[in-house]
Write the structure tokens for this entry.
Amino acid sequence: MTKILIVEDEQKIAELLRDYLIQSSFDPTILDNGLDVIPYVRENKPDLIVLDLMLPGRDGMEICKEIRTFSNLPIIMVTARVEEIDRLLGLELGADDYICKPFSPREVVARVKAVLRRTSGATTIQAKELILDEARYQASLHGIDLQLTAVEFKLLSFLAAHPGRIYSRDQLMEQIYTDHRIVSDRTIDSHIKKLRKKIAALSLDEELIGSVYGVGYKFI
Ligand code: CA
């Protein structure tokens, strides 16, 4: 059974979510204190975490960041404030999705399934001298790790999977963020800029990402 960790200090919400997940044949566990999360994750290796932002002990953002230092397990962040989403995305925590409270448990279950689908078919993409290992979120160029953030990795691997095809910023945002309505266009531009910088640092004569003025970006 797929193990889902629910980190939520509001007991009623946590239990409701747990019941819905059980109905959908998941195996959920609830933790209500931020301090317990990292030890639990290391010990039990859940398949996905639904992580509330405001928690006693330790906040969800810090927890997410720490998990990303040792694991790419799917994380869905939960926040009570819509205006926080932009900040969350800006911080590049490496979460896989975001949900706003109040949510319907049905919606959460749907998101859990979608994120699991998206993250389970992990493969390796190879294009030019670039190797993308989706299980590890690791991209290497000429055998050297590019040290990408999760968002940068997702962007690059999406573009590289469809070389030559031009994608608009909106299309790219849809790939990267499910809740793309609240993200500004510049978010993609700034991720692309950072990506190019990292690529350029390893390879002076190769440009992997091309921009098409007024349209978007493509993998060359
Ligand atoms: Ca909370």
About this structure: Residues 9-10, 52, 54-55 surround calcium ion (CB under 6 Å). The domain at 3-120 is CATH 3.40.50.2300 (Rossmann fold).
